[in-house]
């Protein structure tokens, strides 16, 4: 009898609900990532009962990146808890290789349906906030590529400015001359 295709169910922590393991993701594109503008406090509870505090920096539907005082060993399974814009998220996660002395990536191993919804709401809210920024950046890039004035147009502007300045000086001189003659 093969147990490979059956969902794995386990207790994360006694106060967490039972969660089904996430199915493998075979999507051709990466999950939308959100870089959080403010540090989001997160608590990791290890299997031995110890707790590690950190802050969530980047999150996606598949995992994220944490800032920790010291990284945990890769493949360590933890219960991850944080409060998102969509509500609380409690999940079982697996720590990946540390990226630096204070940053470590993780992937979600199990996530209850309600907490997954909270996470998706948070990601969507941050993506919506970024869309105005993204539109402005796209508009700026487009103007830089397509709207750059030609050299000939720039010369016309400079020449026109010089001519206008000379005319102002001539008019000023004429006005002063007539004022002095009175």
How would you concisely characterize the structure shown here?
With 182 residues, the protein is of the alpha+beta class. 36% of the residues lie in helices and 34% in strands.
Descriptive notes:
The chain has 182 residues and is α+β, with helices and mostly antiparallel strands. It has two domains: 9-130, Beta Barrel (Thrombin, subunit H); 149-181. Helices cover 36% and strands 34% of the residues. The protein is built from two helices and eight strands; from the N terminus they run ββββββββαα. A six-stranded antiparallel barrel has the order 3-4-5-8-7-6. Strands 1-2 form a two-stranded antiparallel ribbon. β4 and β5 form a beta hairpin. Mean pLDDT is 79; it is low at 1-16.
Q: Largest beta sheet, briefly?
A: 6 strands, antiparallel, barrel
Strand content is 25-35%
Number of E strands: 8
Number of distinct helices: 2
H and E order: EEEEEEEEHH
Average pLDDT? 79
Question: How are the strands of the largest sheet arranged?
Answer: 3-4-5-8-7-6
Parts with pLDDT < 50 across at least 5 consecutive residues: 1-16
CATH superfamily of the largest domain: predicted glycosyltransferase like domains
End-to-end separation? 115 Å
Helix content: 25-40%
The structure class reads: alpha+beta
Q: Any idea what the shape is? A: rod-shaped
Overall domain count: 2
**CATH architectural group of the largest domain:** Beta Barrel
């Amino acid at each position: 009898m093969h147990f490979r295709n059956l969902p794995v169910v386990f207790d994360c922590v006694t106060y967490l609900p039972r969660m089904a393991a996430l199915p493998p993701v075979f999507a051709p594109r990466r999950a939308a990532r959100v870089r959080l503008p403010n540090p989001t406090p997160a608590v990791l509870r290890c299997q031995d009962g110890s707790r590690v505090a950190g802050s969530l920096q980047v999150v996606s539907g598949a995992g994220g990146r944490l800032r920790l005082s010291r990284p945990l060993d890769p493949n360590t399974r933890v219960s991850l808890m944080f409060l998102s814009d969509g509500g609380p998220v409690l999940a079982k996660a697996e720590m990946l290789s540390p990226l630096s002395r204070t940053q470590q990536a993780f992937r979600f191993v199990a996530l209850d349906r309600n907490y997954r919804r909270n996470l998706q709401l948070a990601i969507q809210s941050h993506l919506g906030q970024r869309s105005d920024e993204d539109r402005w950046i796209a508009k700026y890039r487009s103007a830089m590529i397509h709207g750059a004035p030609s050299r000939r147009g720039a010369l016309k502007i400079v020449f026109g400015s010089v001519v206008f300045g000379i005319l102002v000086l001539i008019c000023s001189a004429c006005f002063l001359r007539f004022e002095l003659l009175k």
